[in-house]
Design a protein that fits this description.
This protein is mainly α. The protein folds into three domains: about 5-50; about 60-155, Tyrosine recombinase, N-terminal domain (DNA polymerase, domain 1), CATH 1.10.150; about 170-335, Intergrase catalytic core (hpI Integrase, Chain A), CATH 1.10.443. About 45% of the residues lie in helices and about 10% in strands. The protein has helices spanning about 30-50, 60-70, 75-95, 110-120, 125-145, 170-180, 185-195, 195-200, 235-245, 265-275, 285-295, 300-310, 315, 325-335; strands at about 5, 10-15, 20-25, 210, 215, 230-235. A three-stranded antiparallel sheet has the order 1-2-3, with helices on one face. A three-stranded antiparallel sheet has the order 4-5-6, with no helix packed on it. α7 (about 185-195) packs across α11 (about 285-295). The protein is elongated, with a radius of gyration of 28 Å. The termini are far apart. InterPro entries: CB, DNA_brk_join_enz, Integrase-like_cat_sf, Integrase_catalytic, Integrase_recombinase_N, SAM-like_dom, Tyrosine_recombinase_XerCD.
């Protein structure tokens, strides 16, 4: 509760908030002090009941605030995806003639309508990604006291069959490497380390410890790892031999034909190479899948695979568990009775 008192001709308001006593000078009007007391008591009661007042910006306004927050915490490519996904929802609001909708005015029914409209244009999995972005935006809005509830949490996502990771068979690996057309060091490093594309193109000579035979993956001032974590990957003598043959004219290990750090066009170059030799559904990320899949198929335990791959959650690694059909049997066989 709040109370008022007079001292030296001035009225004061006193109340407790956050475990401490707050005192404020109101002035020489008792009437004004009583009004301030009632207002504070209402505000404290609302907070106690979980009715704390929140800002209620428009979606368009808060979208910019949210993107500003995400920009400093994710990879540039991830930020671009967040920007695109929120833009789709803004376009949807514009199409309905309600571009200035406030966060509180967006209901789960409206989100469901958006879901149904988007499914006509893109795959279900893409719609799910867009819904996840909206859900994250609202969770952030709740933390910022700009929303009281998350309408996206009441919407059912599309269910789909989980797609198994595409990886190369041994014969495909041999075919790819023997026809690598100058990409051999890049492809071989992918296959021997399981690096993500951004990790490989940002790899520097200082990250390779030739003496200890390790590659260190860690964030830099101008680049951040996907999870923000640092990990070390052991490397073989064969890979060391390949790396030692590369030019050291730059801080970066892998350079394109112009002597510059590889860009994201590396994806298309690898795809073209794979298509030219008859390897279908081939992406740069499939090389990472290949590294992980063959580790699992050759009996490496999933916890070790998780560490080598740099997965932040074992659930991601479990996507490959089906490749080791005997792993549950081996676990049971270890019982001492």
């Amino acid at each position: 509760m709040a109370s008022i008192y007079k001292r030296g001709g001035v009225w004061y308001l006193s109340y407790r908030a956050g475990g401490r006593r707050v005192r404020k000078s109101i002035g020489n009007s008792k009437k004004l002090a009583i009004l301030a007391q009632k207002e504070v008591e209402v505000r404290l009661a609302k907070k106690k009941l979980g009715w704390e007042e929140v800002r209620d910006p428009t979606f368009l306004e808060f979208k910019e605030e949210y993107l500003g927050y995400r920009k400093g915490n994710v990879q540039p490519t991830t930020y671009v995806r967040y920007k695109q996904n929120t833009r789709h929802f803004v376009d949807f609001l514009n199409g309905r003639g309600s571009p200035s909708s406030k966060l509180s005015q967006i209901s789960f029914q409206l989100i469901e309508e958006y879901k149904q409209e988007r499914r006509k244009a893109v795959k279900h999995s893409t719609v799910n990604v867009e819904l996840k972005v909206l859900r994250a935006l609202y969770n952030f809005a709740i933390q910022c006291k700009c929303a009281r509830e998350n309408p996206v949490s009441k919407v059912d996502f599309f269910r789909g069959v989980e797609k198994k990771p595409r990886f190369l068979q041994k014969e495909e690996i041999e075919n790819l490497l023997s026809n690598s057309n100058g990409l051999y060091p890049v492809l071989y490093t992918f296959l021997k380390t399981g690096l993500r594309k951004s990790e490989l193109i940002n790899l520097r000579w200082e990250d390779i410890d030739f003496e200890r035979k390790y590659i260190r993956v860690e964030s830099k001032e101008d680049w951040r790892t996907k999870t923000g974590n640092t990990r070390e990957i052991p490397i073989t003598d064969d890979l060391i031999g390949v790396l030692n043959k590369l030019s050291k004219t730059s801080d970066y290990v892998f350079l394109n034909s112009k002597g510059r750090k590889y860009g994201f066009h590396l994806t298309e170059r690898v795809k073209r190479l794979a298509r030219s030799i008859g390897i279908s559904d081939m992406t740069v990320h499939a090389l990472r899948h290949t590294f992980i899949s063959h580790l699992v198929m050759n009996g490496v335990d999933l916890v070790s695979v998780k560490e080598l791959a740099g997965h932040s959650d074992i659930k991601t690694t479990m996507r490959y568990a089906h490749l080791a059909p005997g792993h549950l049997r081996k676990s049971i066989d270890k019982l001492p009775y």
